[in-house]
Fold:
Amino acid sequence: MSTGETGSGGSPADHGDPTRPAMGDRRPAYVPSEEVRCQILEQLAVPVAYFGRDRMLAMANAAAAASVSRSEASMIGLLPGEIEPGLFLEGGEGLAEAIDRVLRTGKGEPYETHLMVEGSEHIWQAAMSPVLDAAGEVQGVSVVTLDTTAQFWARRRLAVLNKASMRIGSTLDVGRTAEELAELGIEDFADFVTVDLLAEVLAGDEARSVLHRDTISFHRVAQRSVLGGCPESVVPLGEIHEYDRDSVVGRALIAGEPSRHTVDEEALRRWMADEPARTRSMRLHKIHSVLVVPLRARGVTLGIVLFCRHRIPGGFGAADLQLAAELVSRAAVCVDNARRYTRERATALALQRSLLPRRAARQQAVEVTARYLPNTSGAGIGGDWFDVIPLSGARVALVVGDVVGHGLHASATMGRLRTAVRTLADVDLAPEELLTQLDDLVMTLDREEPADSADGATVAGATCLYAVYDPAAGCCTLARAGHPEPMLVRPDGTVEQLTLPSGPPLGVGGVAFEAADFDLPEGSRLALYTDGLIETAGGDIDAALAELRSLLGRPAHSLEGLCDTVMDALVPEQPDDDVALLLARTRRLDAGHYASWDLVADPAVVSNARKRASAQLRAWGLDDAVFTTELVVSELVTNAIRYGGDPIRLRLIRDTALICEVFDGSSTAPHLRRARIFDEGGRGLLLVASLTERWGTRYTSTGKTIWAEQPLPDAGDADLV
Structure:
C-alpha cells in the first residue's frame, strides 16, 4: 500500500498510537498468583460452591455460606439436602438430581431453587457446570448462583395479573366474579380464599354507613380451597356473618389498606378467639399466614378478601401483599361493574314491571294469561307490551304493541304509548279511531325527539293491535297498525290467522285505519303476539307461523299451560328480540245477566222504565240498588228523550258491576253543567255522576250510549298473569 492509502488493515501506528502494541501481542502487566485467585473467589459477592464426584460439598465461598447463614467449614462434606434442613422448599432433591445429571453427562445446565432464608422465600438461579481434569474427566460440579427473587416476583406478578385480566369479570354477575377471584387465588398463591361482600352490595347499593357500626355484616359469596369442599371454612357459602370493627378484618376494611398476619401475632389471635370454630379450623388445618385485603373500587368499599396458607410452607411476604392488593383491586372494578349493572338492571326491570300490567280490574268477558320475555341485550328490558282494559258495557279491550328498539328508551316509549292507549280506551273510541289518535300522538312525540339522540331511538315505527270484545253480542272488533295478525282457535280446535285490514306502523300518518268484526263462539281462544315470537335470526316466518298454529290447536287444559308451551317451543333461551304473548278465552254474557227494553221518545215512558228496572234488580237480588238505579234510569232516559232521538234503548247488565246504559240515535255529546238556583233542568248528569262510581259516553255509527256503573259488593281485583 502506498503512502497516503488507507484501508481496513494497517499497523497500530496507522490507528494513531505508534507505541500501542497489537491486540494479539497484549499481555497484562500483573498476573495474579494462585493465592490471589483463591482470594478473588473467596471474596466474590456471588455465591459459588463446588460439589465433588461423591456429591458432597467440597468448597464454598463466603457469599455461599452467608446465603444459608452458615460458616464455610460447617458446610464442607454435606450433601445438598443436608446443608440446612428445610432450607430448600423442594427438599433439596431437585438440586441433587441436577448435580447427578451434570456429573453423568458432562454438560452444564441451569437450575432454579426456592430457599427459605430468615423466614422469607428466596429464589436462586444457578448455573451448574462440570469441572474437568487434564484428561477431560468430570471431577465435580461448580454451582454459581444469583438471587433472582425480585425478578421472579415481577414475572409472577405479571403472569397472575395477566390471568386476572383474562379470567376475572367474564360476566356481569357479582357472585360469579367473586368466584373467579377465589379460583385464581388458590393457584400457587394461597391455599384457601374467601370473598365476603357487604350485604348492601349484592342488592346493587353502596354501603357507606355500615363502616361506622360496631359489627359489620358480610355475605359469603365465594370461597375456594386446595382441599375439596373448603373444610377450612366456618361460614357456609351464601350465609350472612359479622366481623367486629376492631378485628383484623374490620380494621383493614375501615382503613382501606391490606394487611398480612401470622398466627403468632396478637391481633390475629384475638380475631381467632372471637369465634371458637375459627380457632379450631385454623389449628386443625395449620393455617399459618393470612392476608386481609379490602375490596374497593372507585372509592366505594365493597367487601373483604382473605387469602390463607397452610400447605404452602412460606408465609406471605411483602411482595405477596402487593400482588394480592393489585389482584383484588382489579377484581373490585369487575365486582363494582357487576354491582352497577345489577342496580341499573333492577331499576330498569322495576320500570318495566311498572309499565306492564300485573293486575287487571276484575272482568268476566275473557279469561286471559300473558307472557313477556325481554331480549338478552338492553339490560333485560324492551319495548314490547300488552294490556287488558275493561270497557263499559262489560266489554274488554285486548292490546299488544311493539316499540322499535330495545333498552330503557324503548321501555319508556312503551310506557307512554300504553298510557295513551289506556286514556283513549277510557274515552271508548272504536279500534280504528283509537289507532288514528295514537298515530297522531306518535308523530307528535317523534317530532319532539332530538335529532342527535344518543341512542338513535325513534318513536315512529311502533306497531299495535287493538281488539274490543263484547260478551253480550259475542262480537270482536279488531284493528292493527303494522302489527302481525292474531290467531283464532275456535272451540272445535280449528286455527286460523284472522285477516285484518292492513294498517301502517304508527307515526307514518296520512293513512286511515280500518277495523274488522268477527263473531266468536264462547270458548274461542285469541292469540295476540309481537313479531319476536315468530321472527328469529335466520328463521323462516312461515314455518314459525305454521308451528304456532299447530301449538295453539292442541288440546289445552289451561291457558297458562298453553302459554308456556308456545313460549318454550318458539322462543330461544336467549332471544334477540322482545316477545309478548297474550292469550284470551272468550266468554259469553249469560242471558240472565242482562236485560234490555226499547223505548219510545215520550216522557210518559220514564215511569215505566223505572218500574222495569226495579223489577229486574229485585229478580237479581239487588234490592239495595233499586233506589239509586231508579234515579239513574230516570235521568238518563229523560235526557235521551229530551236531547236525543229514536231509537231509544235501555239496558241493565249485571257483571262485575251493575251497569245501566241508555242508547239513542243522536250523536250529540252530553255535557255536565252546574244549574243555577231557579233552573228547572241541568242537574241530571251531575246527579248521575254523584250516585255512580263512573259514567261515560261511547259512540257508534248509529248513535251514542250513555252508561253508568255502580259497584257490586263482590267487585275487586284479580290477577292477570
